[in-house]
Every structure is written in structure tokens, then in C-alpha cells.
Design brief:
4 helices; mainly alpha; single chain
């Protein structure tokens, strides 16, 4: 999954910073919208997220048209 891979793109970063600096080329404000829609704290680190939270992030990004569904 692109969101999971991008989340771990930068080591020791918050989920917000990891997604912003990843290969997904998302704007900072778009990452914030995705995190808010998925109800994920911006300050969390990727290793702290549950599988359900990663699924919510992916679903939010796809529904906003910021990520294509890869299934």
C-alpha cells in the first residue's frame, strides 16, 4: 500500500512529515486534510498507527482524489 510505504519513508518522523516528504508528492495542506478526515493525530509516528488507521488514511486519500486506489 502506498500510504504505508510513504509513512515509513522518513525515519523517526511524524506521520504528517513522513507523508509530506514522501514519494507521494502530497502538499502539506492535503496531508493535514487526510489526517483530519481519518481522525489521526498529526503528531503520531507511523509505528504507532494501527492497521485500521492506515486503512482510514488510505480511504480518506482515495475519496479526496489524492491517491488512486491500487486494488
Amino acid at each position: 500500500d502506498n500510504i504505508v510505504n510513504a509513512s515509513f519513508f522518513c525515519r523517526r518522523k511524524t506521520i504528517r512529515n513522513s507523508l509530506t516528504k514522501s514519494f507521494l508528492n502530497l502538499k502539506s495542506e492535503d496531508v493535514e486534510k487526510i489526517l483530519d478526515a481519518a481522525d489521526v493525530k498529526h503528531s503520531k509516528r507511523p509505528e504507532e498507527l494501527t492497521i485500521e488507521e492506515f486503512a482510514q488514511l488510505t480511504n480518506s486519500a482515495v475519496s479526496m482524489g489524492l491517491l488512486h486506489n491500487t486494488r
